[in-house]
């Protein structure tokens, strides 16, 4: 809990020390809470307005360390913690979303992009976390030179709007418009950008793209 409080305050060095000590405790992690029948949960931002609820377990502590490494610019550390998470929680959508987000930080790594594509192949669009995963799946496909496949994934991701963060839906519309422009569908891209402007006129670079300033 001390590690999480330090992370919230962006005291990264202190947070890392506390969280790594918690991980080193092994089976003792969370034992005191269990003795008193307590189940604390902390909200942790993952990506694009999506939040996860984590508890004092190995999974929760590793997710916190991933967030810490990302925030402090330690991409290698984040990747190492995610590899461990994929071992202990391979079916966890929160873990998958964290992994694919990190994977897209290095779009020149084709092996990593192919891994993102493979791991996300079965993702449906049932939850906001699934929608976030589909956004990064589309980006991986686009980075591998498959823009039409990426547009199809983004279209599917954008169909579900209930409970989805506005920031996520706006990014999906923006990415789809950019890809439509890339493949020569300029009129369609323009319509998408205009719709996005109606919904989120403050979206970065959008007014300039539409020639409004």
From TrEMBL:
Database matches in SUPFAM superfamilies: TPR-like (SSF48452)
Entries under Gene3D superfamilies matching the protein: Tetratricopeptide repeat domain
The name this protein goes by in its record: Tetratricopeptide repeat protein
Organism in which the protein naturally occurs: Marivita cryptomonadis
């Amino acid at each position: 809990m001390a590690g999480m409080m330090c992370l919230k305050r962006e005291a990264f060095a202190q947070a890392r020390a506390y969280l790594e000590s918690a991980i080193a405790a092994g089976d003792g992690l969370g034992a005191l809470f269990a003795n008193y029948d307590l189940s604390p949960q902390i909200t942790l931002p993952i990506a694009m307005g999506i939040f996860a609820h984590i508890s004092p377990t190995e999974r929760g502590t590793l997710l916190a360390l991933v967030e810490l490494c990302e925030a402090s610019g330690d991409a290698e550390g984040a990747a190492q913690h995610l590899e461990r998470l994929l071992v202990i929680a391979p079916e966890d959508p929160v873990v998958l979303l964290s992994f694919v987000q990190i994977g897209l930080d290095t779009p020149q790594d084709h092996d990593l992009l192919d891994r993102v594509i493979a791991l996300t192949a079965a993702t449906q669009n049932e939850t906001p976390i699934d929608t976030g995963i589909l956004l990064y799946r589309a980006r991986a496909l686009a980075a591998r030179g498959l823009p039409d496949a990426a547009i199809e994934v983004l279209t599917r991701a954008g169909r579900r709007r209930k409970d989805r963060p506005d920031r996520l839906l706006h990014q999906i519309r923006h990415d789809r418009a950019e890809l439509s422009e890339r493949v020569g569908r300029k009129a369609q891209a323009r319509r998408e950008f205009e719709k996005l402007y109606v919904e989120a006129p403050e979206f970065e670079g959008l007014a300039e793209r539409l020639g409004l300033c």
